[in-house]
Backbone:
């Protein structure tokens, strides 16, 4: 490239000759040079911009395409680098305390249709209607010949049904894998387990979610792949649960009761060994929730946890235990039981007249309302409330079920002295049988608070002390006397030293305004064996009545107690408790001769 | 010298490419094998789950109670009751074994004759 000088001599000389300014020539050339440089720089910049633009375009296209394929393709599990076990992706099983299966999964199939792929929709519709009686051939044909491109026919089908559908031979009928939750024991422990249903559903798989009970409470645990299929271990013992249900169902029908519940709890750990609520249901085929009427009539209603009732005289032992703890009375203190006890407009009476006074033990043994109310007057409302709170009566139970918060105790609006008196014999405070079991466990284990639990406890930790060991032992002794010579004489089971307290509470009318005359809740709260209490058993019957010795009887001594005794007779050997037998010879003494 | 280095580098690149190609295919084969094994193990798990469910279903307490009742004549099974518990001292000691007979003789004509001749 030849470079033009700024002042070309020829043009300068020419300009000078013609009298023009030679500087103009220089300026012109300089301007021309600048314009050239400018053009060149601009071209280079444009080129660079283009390259950069292309690079960005490619990058964006790549990322966009990747995002598009990720969004539109079916997700795949990473295979090369997975953490944990990639095979066990199912919902975990639920087992009892000995590892027996309570809930597991079963691989079944779902059935769906692609009507566009059908060759002979009429044949398919009539074939399906023949296999599944609840389907209607005309409706199916309408669906198959209409606008729809996809429809579910059945969520789960058995292998036999699947084969029958195969035999129809329609290419528009398709199967997808489907996991089903199975409760192999049927209605046993139905209320505890709850049930499961499907969440989000797809053709290839469906999500199994818990809808009630522990299935719902532990949904996160059961679905967590990090557990690698480790089962959920409950504290329930399947054999004991089955025996309890059998005995309770028998007792409920003999006593013509509307419902019944029983709770068997380990007094030291709070583990629930069995918890029955009747009537029950089959969790494999969970009934619908009632939309009208009283929910407590539904078989889904768990009376043991959700049912709050006034539990009657079973509460008397708490007033007496607290009075002993405070040093107000001892087991032999004489209590004034002259009735009726008048407080304002109210009169407190006893079932029988027990004369002017009874010892504290006999107040429990004879179940004197007047005597207990007098003890409650000594304790006072505030101290009583605080004591019942430490026993867990004022909050819903902390048991691991979604239904637990609904079992909220009904407290008096104003905890007056009169409330204290009525609560001392179990009226005016409605709690669930599980509350009662928890509180009796505290008495049975020597005065330590327990938390009721449905999970197996391997390393129990002692809870805070709510009463002294001596008071708890004394209370158990009084409860033992109730069975030996009091209202629960039918509760004696040879060898198991049953101790307990009966309670018969009139049922409150639903719409308020007093109590029914002929409807009661009969409860027997028991502890066994009395010499070294291990277990707490609560049996509650709803509206029992039995015709014995010429009259209709409703009191717990005639209804709940025999049922509980039979239950202990059946269940205690299953728990491995040896009957306590007084041997004729002193133990450990060997006869010798010299 | 420079040319030699270039040729060596080219060979090295070709060698590495061949190695990477082989590794890629080996990895893919291993992954395929793993997938097949996972599928097999998954199927085995499913079968195991099915068998467990069947076992649990066949051993459900209702069915066992019904079976015990049906076969009461043969088995005589009853629910366990408190009387089922025994004490150790109710069990008899094992009987001492009978001393071996050392002086046996063969019987003839139905008369027992000990060796020393005493009757």
Residues:
């Amino acid at each position: 490239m030849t470079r033009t000088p700024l002042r070309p001599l020829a043009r300068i000389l020419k300009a000078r000759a013609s009298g023009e300014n030679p500087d103009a020539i220089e300026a012109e050339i300089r301007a021309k040079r600048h314009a050239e440089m400018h053009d060149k720089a601009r071209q280079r910049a444009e080129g660079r911009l283009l390259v950069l633009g292309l690079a960005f375009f490619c990058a964006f296209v790549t990322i966009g395409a990747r995002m598009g394929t990720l969004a539109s393709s079916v997700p795949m599990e990473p295979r090369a680098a997975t953490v944990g076990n990639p095979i066990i992706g199912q919902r975990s099983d639920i087992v009892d305390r000995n590892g027996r299966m309570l809930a597991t999964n079963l691989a079944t199939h779902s059935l769906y249709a692609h009507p566009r792929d059908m060759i002979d929709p009429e044949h398919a519709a009539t074939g399906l209607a023949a296999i599944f009686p609840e389907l209607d051939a005309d409706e199916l044909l309408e669906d198959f010949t209409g606008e729809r491109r996809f429809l579910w026919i059945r969520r789960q089908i058995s292998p036999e049904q699947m084969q029958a559908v195969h035999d129809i031979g329609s290419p528009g009928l398709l199967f997808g894998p489907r996991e089903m939750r199975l409760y192999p024991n049927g209605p046993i422990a139905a209320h505890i387990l709850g049930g499961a249903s499907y969440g989000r559903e797809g053709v290839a798989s469906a999500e199994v979610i818990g809808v009630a009970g522990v299935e719902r409470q532990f949904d996160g645990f059961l679905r967590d792949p990090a557990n690698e299929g480790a089962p959920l271990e409950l504290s329930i013992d399947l054999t004991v649960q089955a025996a309890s249900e059998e005995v309770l169902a028998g007792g409920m029908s003999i006593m013509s009761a509307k419902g019944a519940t029983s709770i068997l709890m380990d007094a030291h750990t709070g583990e629930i060994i069995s918890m029955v609520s009747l009537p029950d249901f089959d969790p494999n085929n969970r009934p619908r929730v009632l939309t009208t009427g009283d929910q407590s009539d539904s078989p889904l209603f768990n009376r043991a946890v959700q049912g709050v009732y006034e539990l009657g005289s079973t509460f008397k032992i708490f007033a007496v235990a607290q009075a002993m703890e405070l040093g107000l009375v001892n087991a032999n203190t004489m209590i004034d039981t002259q009735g009726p006890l008048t407080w304002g407009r109210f009169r407190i009476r006893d079932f029988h007249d027990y004369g002017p006074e009874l010892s504290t033990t006999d107040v429990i043994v004879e179940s004197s309302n007047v005597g207990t109310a007098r003890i409650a007057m000594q304790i006072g409302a505030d101290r009583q409330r605080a004591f019942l709170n430490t026993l867990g009566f004022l909050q819903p139970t902390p048991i691991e079920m979604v239904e637990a918060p609904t079992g909220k105790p009904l407290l008096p609006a104003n905890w007056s002295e009169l409330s204290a008196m009525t609560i001392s014999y179990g009226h005016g405070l409605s709690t669930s049988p599980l509350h009662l079991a928890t509180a009796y466990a505290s008495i049975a284990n020597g005065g330590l608070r327990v938390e009721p639990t449905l999970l197996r406890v391997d390393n129990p930790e002692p809870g805070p002390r709510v009463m002294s060991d001596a008071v708890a032992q004394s209370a158990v002794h009084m409860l033992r006397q109730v069975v030996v010579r009091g209202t629960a004489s039918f509760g004696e089971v040879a060898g198991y030293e049953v101790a307990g307290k009966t309670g018969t509470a009139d049922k409150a009318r639903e719409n308020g305004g007093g109590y029914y005359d002929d409807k009661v809740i009969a409860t027997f709260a028991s502890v066994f064996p009395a010499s070294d209490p291990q277990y707490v058993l609560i049996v509650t019957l709803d509206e029992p009545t039995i015709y014995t010795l010429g009259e209709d009887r409703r009191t717990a001594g005639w209804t709940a107690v025999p049922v509980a005794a039979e239950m202990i007779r059946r269940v205690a050997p299953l728990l491995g408790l040896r009957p306590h037998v007084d041997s004729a010879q002193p133990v450990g003494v060997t006869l010798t001769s010299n | 010298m420079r040319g030699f280095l270039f040729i060596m580098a080219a060979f090295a690149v070709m060698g590495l490419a061949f190695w990477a190609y082989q590794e890629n295919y080996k990895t893919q084969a291993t992954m395929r094998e793993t997938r097949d094994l996972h599928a097999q193990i998954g199927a085995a798990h499913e079968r195991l789950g099915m068998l467990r469910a069947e076992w649990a279903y066949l051993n459900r307490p209702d069915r066992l109670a019904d079976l015990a009742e049906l076969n009461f004549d043969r088995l005589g099974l009853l629910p366990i009751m408190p009387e089922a518990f025994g004490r150790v001292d109710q069990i008899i000691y094992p009987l001492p074994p009978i001393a071996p007979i050392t002086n046996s003789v063969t019987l003839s004509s139905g008369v027992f004759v000990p060796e020393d001749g005493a009757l």
